[in-house]
Amino acid sequence: MNATASHPRDIANNHFGNNVRIHQGDVYHYSPDQIDRCLADLRPTDPRLDKTRIQQTKGGLLKSSYYWIFKNENFKQWRDNKQHQLLWIKGDPGKGKTMLLCGIIDELMPTTKLMDQSANTVLSYFFCQGTDSRINNATAVLRGLVYLLIDQQPSLISHLQKKYNHAGKDLFLDKNAWVALSEIFATILRDLRTKTIIFIIDALDECEDDLRELLAIIIQHSSLPYVKWIVSSRNRADIQQQLDSHISQGILSLELKENAKLVSQAVDAYINNNVSQLHSIQDNQDLKDKLQALMREKANGTFLWVSLILKELEKAESWELMEVLNEMPTDLTAVYERMLRQIKHLERRNPEFCQNILSTVFTAYRPLSLTELGMLSSLPDEISANFKSIRKLITMCGSFLTIRDGSVYFIHQSAKDFLSQAGSQYNISERHLNIYKQSIAAMSKLHQNIYALPDFGLRPKDAQPPDPDPLAPMRYSCLFWADHLYDASKAKNELADEEAVWLFLKDHVLHWLESLSLIGRLPDSVRSVRKILQELQSSISPQLIGFLKDVEKFILSYGSIIDRAPLQAYGSALVFSPRLSEIKNWQWNERLSFIKEVHGIKDRDIHLQTLEGHSDWVQAVAFSPDGKTLASASDSTAMGCRHGSAAADAGGP
Fold this sequence. Notes:
By secondary structure, the chain is an alpha/beta fold.
């Protein structure tokens, strides 16, 4: 018998046969609520919904416009050759890179766990979008990729949950998030080594933060034989420089002659399909043929050009179509310039209104809902509160903007890039200041118990918003007013509008905290206050500094209470505040009606938080390196972790 042959053996009184892999270690059990909360905090958005939105925004996915890729030699090498793990698809704006990747995903999906749980292939993808701060950074990319991996193989949550129990949502948001997620990502890949993993990332050029680190992760893990990557971007020298030495055979340029011809044919198919659907010429085949021929001649193999022209044709009457098409320049930049000229020549005040809308969408940190856009764009009241009027103005903005699921997006990153150049004469600080002022004006309408809750102890998750939701127009403002104030002030290093900050917080700080609690974003209050204190303290009056510090202490002391029951901002939080607290002095009239007079402590002592959940003496406490998480351990061997920023319990024994 061969000396190296395997034999059955007993381990811990269990009998195992040959070829059995055994893992000996801790087994963790997490409740469904814990898992759901972790996954909800993990994902910046759901990449599957992003894909659907993108396809709908671009008019749907046409198979004949992408299927050529499966005959491409570079793609076939990536798909079939185990030595080709990374494929980079690059091309100029509007060449159809995003829809190409959507098509690849659709074709690969049936053989992966996204559609077939018995499959041995895992597919995860992400669409970067430079105009949305939630999905335009490297950390968001990793969060999205990990989210889809766990969705396909739920047991992978174990690599995430333990750290999440210690740090909570800060695990994905603080300054160490990239480091933590990189480690988690690597561990998950090792756990999936018996499977084939495919990652697809669109628009690397729209990853505005930590792109180099993201590329390094891609390069590092492309050496694993069971991991394959497809990435896309514009032709960017910095991306080429970092990827070049690793994918000499894995670059698919859409401008190369053989590929450009296939792209042009795909654009032709796109033209034929969409022109045939124009309502104004359904009974005129001759006009269809002429339009299709002229569009193919002028398109220059660019999907985006065709998409923009189709939007113009949809507005025209049948007898105007050829004239409109003949007027259209063949260059994308020239098309955008024409759209801008048309806006400037609108009648009456409409150019001003369109300019306000474009400026607001351009400056916002994420896509705005129609209600948010109406409130932030300095429009007359009869327009700002009317969905129909806002939609009409958006259509007047040429084809720069599009509406999808009630939110407003740029039609393409190149549209925002063009406006960035065209509007370079406008002061970016002024744009931020305008949004800040509109936000403060809107939030000044906040009031106690804005949802008319019947119970002072009702939790946010149990609160039913009125219809219409009074917070809907103000959600963005509640979250980002301080960011816009900072960006309006940083150029001159002086607070742009100190009096308005002071008046708003003095009158509405509790209303603001209640609102943030209702929308599940109370920890953002500390971030907002600290951003002003830390970044602009040298230019703030001592009076405002003192009040901001008192607000910070108030949230740290009572944030966990307000987070659980928003109306307790006016109850226990005020009651237990010391008599010298500025918030208590300014806001005491806001106390709940049944509270009369309370003679509490004179001033806060040196501690800000009470460590709850221990049944014995606490013997050890320690902050995480970034100061955002506090861990405590007691004689009973219990250990608890709390978010330092919001005083909320983050974990248990």
